[in-house]
Amino acid sequence: MEDKSFNPFKMAQQQFDEIAEQLGLDEGTRDFLRNPRREYHFTIPVRMDDGTTKVFKGFRVQHNDARGPSKGGIRFHPQETIDTVKALATWMTWKCAVVDIPLGGGKGGVICDPHNLSMREQEQICRGWVKQIARNIGPLQDVPAPDVMTNSQHMLWMMDEYENISGGKFPGMITGKPVGMGGSLGRTEATGYGVIYTLREALRSKNVDIKGTTASFQGFGNVAQYAIELYHKYGGKTVCVSSWDQQDQKSYSFYRESGINLQELLDITDKFGGIDKKKAKNIGYEILSGDEWINREVDILIPAALENQINAQTVLNISDKVKFISEGANGPTTPEADKILSDMGIFVIPDFLANAGGVTCSYFEQIQGNMNFFWTKDEVIEKLDNIMTKAFYGVYELSEKRGIFMRDAAYMIAIARVAEASKLRGWV
Ligand code: NAD
């Protein structure tokens, strides 16, 4: 399934070029916005538990900071590449702009597999990453956050190292911290909930009652778990989820026509979102190949794992029944597949709108940290819903007005905002 020739950064640039053309941006502005402003590569030597030294590769990319400090997560992944990080940083710029929060776009990563690392070794990677980049990040420059296979503990080690180096307390240098240590209530839920707030409004706009709809998810990690929780609360039924099996080094889909039971599956899922397939089989789930999540006859598909999953090949397996896709993952759909989805009449809520709940809540974490006063979870969730709903309608109304695909409308709004900020600053 993995396409080795796929380059996510080329895809991000291709998406940008198409919209820049439609917006009539001048050559200089295009040149400026289609590439990251800054890109850091470094090595992180770690003394392993067995006494040997292993060298890990780390990255940080700051795509654009015209609207505010760069913002974006840090991934730990064995297949991390600089082009993935550059693409994700670019998408973060558009994401912050589309929900209209005063932040730019950044992203980081380390090529490593936390499954095979002790907690001490992971801590050393976190501290080593900060040691290399401390001068170029910070509350006023670039604010990292968790992403695939990183969590609040990793963020806290990073903050601690940054404070060791800087000699002060800087809770605003990173978000996704544990609650009680500067973290915001609701952050864990935020991305998954945001995926469902935008889906809820999409269904409402098309006069579809969310109650009784069915969905299939790729992934069963942070985003998918909370999206499923809220989707079920609204009366939806999830019939399939897929996850990565560390032992077999491949993915599986877990299907039950009568609907999955979230808690039951959570009980047999590891902390990386991997579902135990033997236990799942014992409790009545059909175990299918990893690709099967996309073939299900459901109303809604929610990719919430990796990029490049709905591509020119896999898009052909999508059932006629599917009418909505809400993109929890970053970059799950290729431009070629987009054209086919558009022809199929599928309503797509693009990734950088659908999954913007996480960064929106990170922005709330910064605000609360600056005030040193923390909101209740209900307050956070209500503010999140308001921002996501407003952003959805901004994009939806433009897409209706101009008769264009939701992704194009979202890009138009976001790119125009960043181009305008860059212009006002006198950069382009
Ligand atoms: P996670 O690490 O918590 O979970 C990832 C899930 O994907 C796990 O269930 C894993 O088993 C599964 N997975 C991995 N490879 C797979 C494969 N080949 N096939 C099927 N399943 C596979 O990560 P997450 O935080 O849920 O993030 C998921 C996606 O959402 C990523 O694209 C991430 O960039 C994006 N995202 C996350 C956030 C956030 O706040 N967590 C915010 C915005 C976007």
Which terms would index this structure?
single chain; 428 residues; alpha/beta; Rossmann fold; 2 domains; seven-stranded mixed β-sheet; five-stranded mixed β-sheet; 14 helices; globular
Account of the protein in words:
The chain is α/β, with parallel strands linked by helices. The chain folds into 2 domains: 8-180, 3-Layer(aba) Sandwich (Rossmann fold), CATH 3.40.50; 188-354, Rossmann fold (3-Layer(aba) Sandwich). Helices cover 43% and strands 18% of the residues. It is built from 14 helices and 12 strands. It has helices at 8-23, 27-33, 82-98, 119-133, 152-166, 187-205, 222-233, 262-266, 277-282, 335-343, 351-354, 357-371, 377-402, 406-424; strands at 38-47, 53-64, 70-77, 104-111, 142-146, 214-218, 237-245, 250-255, 286-289, 300-303, 324-326, 347-349. Strands 9-8-7-6-10-11-12 form a 7-stranded mixed sheet. Strands 1-2-4-3-5 form a 5-stranded mixed sheet. Helix 10 links the parallel strand 11 (324-326) and strand 12 (347-349). Helix 1 (8-23) packs parallel to helix 3 (82-98) and helix 1 packs across helix 14. The chain is globular, with a radius of gyration of 21 Å. 51% of the residues are buried. The mean pLDDT is 96. Nicotinamide-adenine-dinucleotide (NAD) binds at residues 147-149, 191, 218-224, 242-244, 251, 272-274, 290, 304-306, 328-330, 355, 358.
Helices, strands, pairings?
Layout: H1 8-23, H2 27-33, E1 38-47, E2 53-64, E3 70-77, H3 82-98, E4 104-111, H4 119-133, E5 142-146, H5 152-166, H6 187-205, E6 214-218, H7 222-233, E7 237-245, E8 250-255, H8 262-266, H9 277-282, E9 286-289, E10 300-303, E11 324-326, H10 335-343, E12 347-349, H11 351-354, H12 357-371, H13 377-402, H14 406-424
Parallel strand pairs: 3-4, 3-5, 6-7, 6-10, 10-11, 11-12
Antiparallel strand pairs: 1-2, 2-4, 7-8, 8-9
The structure holds nicotinamide-adenine-dinucleotide.
The site of nicotinamide-adenine-dinucleotide (NAD) has 27 residues, from helix 7 and strand 7.
